[in-house]
Amino acid sequence: MREELSNSELERYARHLSLPGVGLEGQQILKNSSILVVGAGGLGSPCLLYLAAAGFGQIGIIDDDKVDVSNLQRQVIHSNANLGEPKVESAKRRLLDLNPDISVKIFNTRLNIENALDLIGQFDIIVDGTDNFQTRYLINDACEILNKAWIFASIHQFEGQVSVFNLSSGLNYRDLFPKPPPLEFAPNCAEAGVLGILPGIIGSIQATEAIKIILDIGTPLSGKLFVFNALTMTSRILKFEPNKSRELVSELSLESEYCISKSSMSSGEITPAEYINRINDDWNPFLLDVRREDEESISRIEGTSLRIVHTEIPNRIQEIPSDRDIVIYCRSGVRSAAVQRFLFETGRTNTILNLKGGILKWSDTVDSSVIKY
After folding, report:
1. CA-CA distance, 278 to 270, in Å (whole number)?
2. How far is CA 206 from the centre of its chain?
3. Disulfide engineering: 43 pairs with which of 19, 104, 203, 301, CB 3.0-4.6 Å?
4. Radius of gyration, CA atoms only, the chain
5. In a 3-state reduction of DSSP, which class is residue 265?
6. Helix axes 272-280, 358-365, angle to 10 degrees
7. What's the distance, CA 340 to chain centroid?
8. pLDDT tens digits, 178-225
């Protein structure tokens, strides 16, 4: 049953009601539409705020993370008062404070093969607010199976990208990106850094695309990739063609979560506390830091044997011994796990361990003087 606008909503959306292409009918369409935002972080924050302000009747949020102080540089939906709180709960409270006339449905979990079809199937349109390839391929495949449009975005340092996939069974994420890059060369924004304002710009564009699609106005970014550079304040639109060799997806498979399945290959981890205990028992491993030089200047672990940026490992592999135990670390354990996998795949037989949680966990559990960043 279609819900009509209340008197308070007519007042709230006055600027929309007078806008050609929206008007009363368009605002009622928004009120009776639903949208799922995957991720309540940098991209999800501005997108969710503007979707709520615009009057989307039902907004879904899926995220399994908690608010951390390092989020607040860009994740503007959260605040200091929400530190330690599940992001979905923090985001829901903020959205209802902004617009009490909408409904917000939250899922404090991670999107995966088991729940993707059920969760995505509950909403009209999907927004990708994630920062990893595995979830994007999963969203893409689920949306293809369910015939749902979804709005992609990515951010990296000073550059952002936006596109619309599967609109009216149109071009697909796999048309643009047929195969994922190697994990060791695909850092997320936590590892590579990102200008705090950038997700605000890109997430707002995602919200714009969602409104255009629901109201069937303008020209959505289907078959096009919008690229924005904050340093030069320039943008361009790249067109792409169908991948004729691509097979249609009929069911979710492990390939849909290729990074998740590959990430489970990490067979050896060691916690900071375990590392210290073994060092105290005269263990003498080769401690390899795979972060950038600017990160090393912030903090490092005493006893580090060598630092090589993770992307340079293939070119400098001869500097890493094959006759000693190796422990690899980075900021959070993501890049070090990728390097560990790479070394395994070269056929090395010596013990290679990933320092679980990296600098962050080291600071929390072993030495708080090691600065987290």
Report:
1. 10
2. 14
3. 203
4. 23
5. coil
6. 70
7. 22
8. 877 655 555 555 566 789 999 999 999 999 999 999 999 999 999 999
Shared-domain flag, residues 243 and 337: no
Say whether 189 is catalytic.
yes
Looking at the fold, whether 232 and 328 belong to one and the same domain comes out as no
For 245, the token pair is 């060799």
∠ at Cα 241 (237, 242), nearest 5°?
A: 140
What ranges in 55-197 are assigned the alpha helix state H? 87-98, 116-120, 133-146, 173-176, 189-192
pLDDT in tens, 225-240: 999 999 999 999 999 9
Q: Distance (Å, rounded) from C-alpha 73 to C-alpha 105?
A: 25
Is residue 2 in a domain? no
311: which residues sit within 8 A by CB, 6+ positions away? 184, 185
Same domain, 240 and 357: no
Average pLDDT of the residues in 99-107: 98
The predicted pLDDT at position 202 comes to 98
Q: How far is CA 265 from the centre of its chain?
A: 21
Say which of 47, 143, 259, 330 is annotated catalytic.
330
Of the residues 47, 143, 189, 259, only one is catalytic, namely 189
Is position 37 within any domain? yes
What does the pLDDT average to over 110-121? 95
Sorted by sequence, the CB contacts under 8 Å of residue 244 that are 6+ apart come out as: none
Q: Which two tokens stand for residue 310?
A: 């993770």
Q: Report the share of the chain in percent with pLDDT over 90.
A: 79
CATH number at 60 reads 3.40.50.720
Residue 132 lies in a domain: yes
